[in-house]
Design brief:
InterPro entries: DUF2232 (IPR018710). This protein is mainly alpha-helical and about 300 residues long. It has 2 domains: about 1-50, no CATH class; about 95-290, Arp2/3 complex 21 kDa subunit ARPC3, CATH 1.10.1760. It is about 70% helix and about 0% strand. It is built from 13 helices and no strands. The protein has helices at about 1-10, 15-20, 65-80, 85-90, 95-125, 125-130, 135-145, 145-165, 165-190, 195-220, 225-240, 250-285, 295-300. Helix 8 runs antiparallel to helix 9 and helix 10 packs across helix 12 (about 250-285). It is globular.
């Protein structure tokens, strides 16, 4: 059937009345070669039932138009005050965005290193051998990026230990190492004298140790401070009896002796931390950020 219709379309107009004598002769318009139709032969005309004119294809964006659009966009950005250029400048090595991102990444890395080192040391029972290095990441963060960065590093480390080991280990880290590292890093950041720094850090360490004793007493439901007082009293009484002194020390004397020994222990520990961290940070290239005593500068 489509073949018959195609042949009818290809016939000349004069032969149409012969096929359909009762119909009215139709004269179909001749279409040009670029119209939609069928070309039967060179002598016949191109006939079609419908003449469809296709519009000329025009791209929505030309190359010249794209160039003008880009140029116009640049003029608008410059006209707005160079906001985009300033945004690109912030991503540079000296930009504010780059520095904030670098500070965040360094704080996260130092917190993870400190938390994992403390967790593994407690798990392997080697905390006494590496206890001097648990405060170092907080000190580095405080010296490089300020007091807020050191505080964030300490809190992030505590949160990591809270997730890995529970609240007891996290609290122990804060009392025994975290607060000391934050105090030391803050004082070194402010370039405080070493004598003042050692005294303040010793007090902070002693307060943290007492807090650790109270926390342990609460957890085991036993007054550890009372036990320490009783043992010191008994030891001091035996010493005085061996020396031939018939005297029983009072509770105030025992507390004074206990506090003196605690401050002495914390003072030696803080002094060791100051020397160890000063040497370590000097080897890392942060000597310009430190305020060292003259004898230590000559030794290093």
């Amino acid at each position: 059937m489509p073949l018959v219709n195609l042949r009818l379309l290809c016939l000349r107009p004069a032969s149409l009345p012969q096929l359909f004598p009762r119909s009215i002769p139709l004269s179909l318009p001749e279409l040009s070669s670029n119209s939609f139709g069928l070309n039967c032969s060179s002598s016949s005309s191109s006939l079609s039932l419908f003449a469809i004119s296709l519009p000329k294809f025009q791209p929505r964006v030309s190359i010249s138009g794209a160039g003008k659009h880009a140029h116009k966009k640049e003029e608008e950005e410059v006209g707005d005050g160079g906001g985009t250029l300033m945004a690109y400048e912030d991503l540079g090595a000296e930009g504010e965005v780059f520095r904030k991102t670098l500070r965040l990444v360094e704080c996260a890395m130092l917190a993870s290193v400190s938390g994992l080192a403390y967790f593994l040391s407690n798990s392997l029972a080697i905390e006494n051998y590496f206890g001097c290095f648990f405060s170092l990441p907080i000190v580095i963060s405080s010296i490089r990026w300020g007091l807020a960065a050191g505080r964030k590093t300490m809190v992030a480390t505590a949160m990591l230990l809270l997730t890995l080991s529970g609240p007891v280990k996290a609290s122990t880290y804060l009392l025994m190492h975290g607060v000391v590292g934050l105090a030391m890093g803050s004082l070194w950041r402010l370039r405080i004298n070493w004598g003042v720094s050692m005294v303040l850090c010793t007090i902070v360490r002693a307060i943290g140790a007492i807090g650790y004793i109270l926390l342990s007493s609460f957890l085991i439901r036993e007054n550890i401070l009372d036990l320490i007082t009783i043992n010191v009293h008994a030891s001091l009484t035996y010493i005085l009896m061996d020396m031939g002194v018939n005297m029983i020390p009072s509770i105030d004397t025992i507390y004074a002796i206990f506090g003196s020994l605690l401050l002495l222990n914390c003072g030696f520990f803080v002094f060791l931390l100051h020397i160890l961290y000063a040497v370590f940070l000097s080897k890392l290239g942060m000597r310009a950020s430190l305020t060292l005593p003259h004898w230590l500068e000559k030794a290093i």
